[in-house]
Every structure is written in structure tokens, then in C-alpha cells.
Amino acid sequence: MHVIGIHGIWQGNTNAVKLQADWAAALAKGLRTHHGPACPIPPLTVAYYGKLFHTASRRLGPDNTSVPGDSDPFTDQEEQFVLDTLALYTPPGLDPAHLETETLGLGIPYAPRSVVKAVVAVERKLGRDMGRRLLGIIRQVYRYLHHDLGERIRTEVQKELHRDGPRLVIAHSLGSVIAFDMLTRDQIGPGPEGLTTLVTCGSPLAWLTIRRSLSKNGVLQLPDGIDWINLHAAGDIVAQSGLSHVAPAVRDELVHNGLDAHAARRYLEKQPLADLLAKTSFA
User: Fold this and answer.
1) How far apart are CA 59 and CA 141, in angstroms?
2) pLDDT-based confidence at 68, cuts 50/70/90?
3) In principle, which of 38, 75, 230, 233 could form an S-S bond with 257, CB 3.0–4.6 Å?
4) pTM of the predicted protein model
5) 190 touches 227 (CB < 8 A)
6) What proportions of the chain, in percent to the nearest 5, are helix, strand and coil?
């Protein structure tokens, strides 16, 4: 069994070698903590696509095509996607349109006033800077779903997912959206000799904006023969309360990651994942 990781957002300033080493160290820590120092460590490869987002700051991708960046103006479609997603985090009964934005400072350049007001509303509920953090996450998710960047990301990820033999995939944050999207596009080989298990961590797949973009307004389902386990941490604003309410076949596991609740390394060290890996035979 080979483990393949699919990372989340904000990995443009690292590289495939370092990211794989970080993930391997976190998995090893979890296995040895929960199953002893003699527990075998599975072979791991992380499918790295972060460099495609990193090129956004340079305006051109590796093939000289435009890559959307944080300084790009919002399209009407992106603005609506962002507003609908931020609405999930707005205090009940609070209309963002009535809020003042002066206290937010200059931290959100090029954003429409409607988006800035929505961020202020979110920070009323979640605390200072949390709205801006969410905005960055939402914009990267939107770019994957609604730009040709998504196809380029899938091409990078597919290089690892098309390995021979049984595979287990661990997908964090945006990586969980990519994995689910590729599975429902039949871009990962399911079945006994293909992908056997999907582990999602810190997943935003419960967001209705994502499910609509994937044409999955109803329940989320994987192809037959693939077990789906979802780790969601208390305090992880991206993962919220898990996925079982939108994906009946998923097994939700609540974990506690501390202050850095959304961090991939925290999820990779947790006992439910260690238990799963420890009982799996690695070839």
C-alpha cells in the first residue's frame, strides 16, 4: 500500500521535497506515538501543485498563461461565490451591508466594498483577522473550481495518483476538494487495485458554494469500493462540523489540534489516522 498526500492552500513558498518530508515526519510521529517506535512507516508521496499558485504573484504561469492573483479584480461570479461562502460565518441577524469598514484598515486591496463588509461581519463572530484569513482560502478554492488553473492542478496530481497497485490518499483542505473532484471525474482508478481509501482532513466540502460548483447540490458520494474517512478538528473554521450531513457514507472523526486547528501536520499526527495506517498492510 502506498500513501499519497494532496496538500492544501498556501504551499507556493515550499517545494515537493520539503513538503513530503514534513508530511512523512508528521505521519511517523503519529504512528510512533500511538503504536510504538517499532510501528512501520508507510511509503509516502505528496502530489505537489503549490508552485502553480506561487506563480500568481508573477502574473504568468510556467507556460506563459495568465494566473489569477490576489491583486486581480473580482469578477461578478467570484464576488458572489465569496459572499455566499462568507455568509456561512456571519453572525445570525447581522446584515453586512449596514457595517462600517474603516476599522478594517488597508488589508484587503482590490476587494469590492460588499466583500470588505462581509469580512468585517465574519470578524465580528470569529475574531480579528479571521475574516481576512477565510477570504484568502475562499479565493484559492474559487480559482481551482472556476479557472483553467484547476485542470493544471489535476494534471500535476494525476501523475502520482496513477501509480500501480493499491493506494490510500490523504487530502488536506483544498486537496480534499481536488481528490473528490477527480474521483467523480473518474480520474483516479478505484477498486481493489486502485484507490482503496480516501482520508480527508480539514475539508471545506460541506460549503454549498463548492458543492454547487462541482454540480453536487445533493449528497456527496464516492465511487463504490472506496472507504471515506474525514478528520475535522474542533476550532477548524474551514472544516466546521464535518461532512456526514452532506456525505452519508463518510466516517467523521473529531480530533483536537490545538490553536493551529487547520494545520495539516496536526491532522497527520492524530490517532484515527495512525490507527488506520497501522492496521493496513504496506507493500
Assistant:
1) 18
2) very low
3) 233
4) 0.89
5) no
6) 45, 15, 45
More confident residue, 66 or 8: 8
Mapped onto helix, strand or coil, the DSSP state of residue 6 is strand
Q: Is the pLDDT of residue 177 over 90?
A: yes
- Classify 229 as helix, strand or coil: strand
Beta strands in 113-191 (DSSP E): 167-172
Tell me the sheet residues that pair with 60: 66
CA distance linking residue 142 with residue 276, whole number of Å: 32
The pLDDT tens digits for 97-140 are 667 665 555 456 678 888 988 998 898 888 888 888 899 899 99
| Dist. CA 56–CA 216, nearest whole Å | 28
Locate cell 461578478: which residue? Answer: 76
Letter string b/e over residues 120-145, b meaning 16 or more CB atoms within 10 A of that residue's CB: bbbbbebeeeebbbbbebbbbbbbbb
**Can you name the residues that pair with 252 across neighbouring β-strands?**
230
Q: Give dist(CA 34, CA 39) in Å, integer.
A: 9
The rounded distance, in Å, linking the Cα atoms of 141 and 164 is 29
Q: Which helix (H) or strand (E) holds 56?
A: none
User: What would the pLDDT profile of 225-281 be if each residue is shown by its tens digit?
Assistant: 889 999 999 999 999 899 999 999 999 999 999 999 999 999 999 999 999 999 885
